[in-house]
Specification:
The protein is mainly beta. The protein is built from four helices and 33 strands.
């Protein structure tokens, strides 16, 4: 009873002290001043009176809609992008002159600009960068300045460049444009892709002192496009050739571009004066282009060439050439002055990369046309006496190590007698030996029937022979011959009979024919009569084999 009174007294004292502490600290604040409206009701500031809409915008509304996220003012002479610089030896910063000097393997990067040299000086006030080299005790040049920007590459003895205007001046500069090397005693860079050079030279020799070059006093270079010069002359081994041109125009653009192909003149006793190779080259896409050329002769003959090419890296590439020519030449017949012949020829080559589709291959090599085409090719005696044309198209596919399919088409042509032979299609399908009763997982010794194997070999061929002078669809069908052959081998390895291993085998074959020949003796005329029947005919055969071996 006494303990209960003591506990209740303690609780009463704690409650009284807590109430007093709350009353004292209710209106007090911490380190931050509390707003006076905090004690009011959350809705005390609201006015229930309807608000009248004002059609005029208030200044306070326009001011509150603007948000400034960057209050730091930039200097007018500051750079538009950061500059990264490094050096292998040391970096000296002179605050009085606002210059930064980099020593030994210096490098500066700003956006697409990459400048490397032995020493580089940066002037912050003028935005000028000066890159130079040095020589060692043996006189060898170390750290020749090199500047990369966009698609241009410059190597010079001295490079002065302005970051802000992107203009610069170089001395003894070499730049490569495709396969052409352009050197200049002084080169002025006026923009990212435009240069002016004083005492320049063009060459394909990559030496500092080239074996041959075209020299000019003034030139303008547009990077990866063209170069235009004033008077220009060639020189060999430093010796100028006294052949001067009033100006020079050097296309140095990279990649493929559509344009006109210039012709060349020719002369022939049979064809007359001619203009060969006049045409146009057209780029249709990154994978396909086409060339169209034509030949014209004064006696009335002409020839047209259509040559499309296609390519896709690591996939396939090919080219085709379709030629149609009308030959009009002097006739050996005194009754007529000229003789005219129309001929055509088509060639096609296709190659498939073996890595494109493993297990699948396709190739083509086609050369076909009129039998008299080669005779009328101008100024090509090797082709004039070529009397054989042949073509081959092959497709093959393999499914794992079990199935193999090969399809091909072949063509051969004799230009002397005009005989054309076509073998299409020729198909071969092979199934390697399969063991249908064999278990997928071996356990213990195999059963005798698990060694039973079966395979398949099928061949289909079709042959057409005709003379080009008698070509017609009816003759094509009459001379068509086709056939097929199938072979199914069965093999089995029986259990050993002591040291003797017995292996029986059965082979079933079936042949399909499109023609049947019947020959019978004609006693009246004392000869053999042959009757050809067209249709679908079959024949079958079966063979047995037994093999025995001993260890």
């Amino acid at each position: 009873m006494i303990n209960g009174r003591e506990n209740s007294l303690k609780y009463r004292i704690v409650c009284v002290l807590s109430v007093l502490l709350s009353c004292i600290t209710f209106n007090s604040s911490a380190n931050y001043t509390a707003p006076t409206e905090f004690c009011n009701s959350l809705t005390a500031w609201q006015d229930t009176t309807p608000i009248k809409k004002d059609t005029l915008p208030r200044k306070s509304d326009s001011l509150t809609s603007r948000t400034d996220t960057f209050n730091l003012k930039m200097s007018k002479d500051s750079l538009d992008a950061p500059v990264e610089y490094k050096a292998a030896d040391s970096v000296v910063i002179d605050l009085t002159t606002k210059k930064i000097i980099l020593f030994s393997k210096a490098n500066i990067r700003k956006q697409d600009l990459d400048l490397s040299a032995d020493s580089i000086e940066i002037d912050q006030s003028t935005k000028m960068v000066t890159a130079t080299f040095r020589r060692d005790s043996a006189g060898t040049m170390i750290g020749r300045p090199k500047m990369l920007q966009g698609e241009s590459t410059l190597e010079s003895d001295v490079i002065k460049y302005n970051f802000q205007s992107q203009k610069g001046m170089t001395r003894n500069t070499i730049t490569q444009q495709g396969e052409i090397y352009i050197q200049g005693e002084k080169i002025k860079k006026v923009s990212v892709n435009e240069f002016f050079a004083f005492r320049g030279q063009f060459t394909t020799c990559n030496l500092d002192t080239p074996h041959f070059a075209f020299r000019t006093k003034k030139l303008k270079l547009i990077n990866q496009k063209l170069a235009v010069t004033g008077p220009v002359h060639p020189e060999f081994e430093g010796v100028p050739v006294p052949i001067y041109l009033p100006f020079g125009f050097f296309p140095i653009s990279q990649g493929r571009h559509s344009g006109i192909l210039p012709p060349q003149f020719t002369a022939s006793d049979q064809y007359g004066l001619g203009l060969q190779g006049l045409g146009y080259y057209k780029v249709l896409s990154d994978y396909f282009d086409v060339t169209l050329r034509g030949d014209l002769y004064s006696y009335g003959g002409w020839a047209g060439y259509l040559s499309p090419t296609y390519r896709k890296r690591y996939r396939y590439n090919g080219a085709m050439n379709l030629t149609i020519q009308k030959t009009r030449l002097l006739s050996s017949d005194p009754k007529e002055e000229f003789s005219s012949v129309r001929t055509f020829n088509i060639t096609w080559s296709h190659t498939m990369d073996s890595r494109a589709r493993p297990g699948t291959s396709f190739s083509a090599n086609v050369n076909a046309g009129s039998t008299k085409f080669n005779q009328f090719v101008v100024n090509n005696p090797i082709r004039n006496y070529s009397n054989q044309l042949s073509s081959s198209i092959t497709y093959s596919k393999t499914w794992g190590a079990k199935y193999n399919l090969t399809a091909s088409a072949n063509h051969s042509q004799n230009n002397n007698n005009g005989l054309v032979n076509l073998n299409l299609p020729t198909v071969a399908f092979t199934v390697n030996t399969l063991y249908p009763f064999q278990r997928k997982e071996f356990s213990g010794s195999p059963k005798w029937y698990e060694k039973f194997g079966i395979g398949l070999q099928s061949n289909v061929a079709n042959q057409i022979s005709f003379y080009d002078s008698l070509f017609s669809f009816r003759n094509l069908v009459d001379t068509m011959q086709w056939g097929a052959q199938h072979n199914i081998p069965l093999q089995l390895s029986l259990p050993q009979l002591g040291p003797v291993q017995v292996s029986p085998g059965i082979s079933y074959g079936e042949k399909w024919y499109s023609r049947k020949f019947r020959r019978q003796w004609n006693a009246t005329n004392n000869k053999i009569d042959t009757v050809i029947n067209k249709g679908f005919f079959t024949s079958r055969d079966i063979s047995f084999s037994l093999g025995m071996s001993t260890a």
